[in-house]
């Protein structure tokens, strides 16, 4: 049986709005009627990887930011955007690996909950490959990947007609001060960390991408086809 194929699109540093626009183009492509798009039967979608070019706070379907909070965060010099993903408010910015997985779960043989667990497994594996063996996923209501009581990777996805979007945000060398202006993901009494913070050395997004792709390929049992970055 042939492995499903995922288009790998590496975007380098990119404004968050441009990432969302590219994601929407891939969603339309996967949601199109059969025969109207040039997708082979083996193609399951795309993996969009980037590092945000600037600070942005995002809220999910459950909200998380009042108009007053939005004005306060914008006054800090950050962008604020509402998104269609699950979850509450979080932060994206330089030093963070953003992975938006636009996938047809039927072609991968996955359910939504299995997909979320697979994303968590990928982030746990990256932590292990970097030498952090205490990383783990936690049961609901906690999503993402944790090192003790500190979240190193946030996960929020959207799914409609078996097609997912959004994905994960892994803190590599993120300036963690930005998280102090919100309650990340609505979880009180927990903290946020990064690979750089835990390893006490600078860990770049570029350093993390190869082990992340290795973990993704193994977890999703897929092959990659590289696609030229549009930026």
Structure characterization notes:
The protein is an alpha/beta fold. Helices cover 29% and strands 32% of the residues. It has six helices and twelve strands. It has helices at residues 16-31, 67-75, 105-108, 112-129, 195-199, 205-220; strands at 5-14, 43-52, 56-59, 79-82, 90-92, 96-104, 135-137, 145-147, 150-160, 163-171, 191-192, 223-227. The strands form two sheets. Strands 1, 2, 6, 7, 8, 9, 10, 11 and 12 form a nine-stranded mixed beta sheet that branches. Strand 9 and strand 10 form a beta hairpin. Helix 4 packs across helix 6 (205-220). The relative contact order is 0.20.
SSE map:
Elements: E1 5-14, H1 16-31, E2 43-52, E3 56-59, H2 67-75, E4 79-82, E5 90-92, E6 96-104, H3 105-108, H4 112-129, E7 135-137, E8 145-147, E9 150-160, E10 163-171, E11 191-192, H5 195-199, H6 205-220, E12 223-227
Parallel strand pairs: 1-2, 1-12, 3-4, 9-11
Antiparallel strand pairs: 2-6, 3-5, 6-10, 7-8, 8-9, 9-10
Helix pairs in contact: 4-6
